[in-house]
Amino acid sequence: MDFSEDEIAPDPDYADYYNDNLEEPCTYQNNHRLEQVVGPYIHSIICILGFIGNSLVIVTYAFYKRTKSMTDVYLLNVAIADLLFVVALPLIVYNELTSWSMGRWRISCSRLLA
Predict the structure, then answer these.
(1) What residues make up the domain containing 107?
(2) Is the dihedral of CA 77, 78, 80, 84 positive or negative?
(3) How large is the average pLDDT for residues 30-53?
(4) What are phi and psi of 68, to 5 degrees?
(5) Per the UniProt record, which residue ranges are transmembrane (predicted)?
(6) Whether this model's pTM surpasses 0.90
(7) Is position 30 within any domain?
(8) For residue 15, what is the DSSP state?
(9) Mapping DSSP to helix (H, G, I), strand (E, B) and coil, where does residue 14 land?
(10) Residue 110: enclosing H or E segment and its boundaries?
(11) What is the chain's alpha carbon radius of gyration, rounded to the nearest angstrom?
């Protein structure tokens, strides 16, 4: 099947369909001002209360003399995991507010852990 130049459709002229004078219906402004002001306070309260609460659970478990059941061990593990999250929460909030890529600090920590 050999097509000649006459059988192939010519390129359409898209200039008829495109208008340079179009304006967007509205401007989108991403305003995170309230989030940037209130967010750190809320996260600070969560961090402080979470650290105190989970520390009390761990200390209570450490001084608890009775035989430990599986439920007690599970609650201890949940308290430790939550405590680790609460300790990392300020770094997470700082990263969200400033787009911090952790730079040299991350490299030194990864070398320390390796």
Answers:
(1) 39-113
(2) positive
(3) 83
(4) -85, 130
(5) 41-64, 73-94
(6) no
(7) no
(8) G
(9) helix
(10) helix 103-113
(11) 30
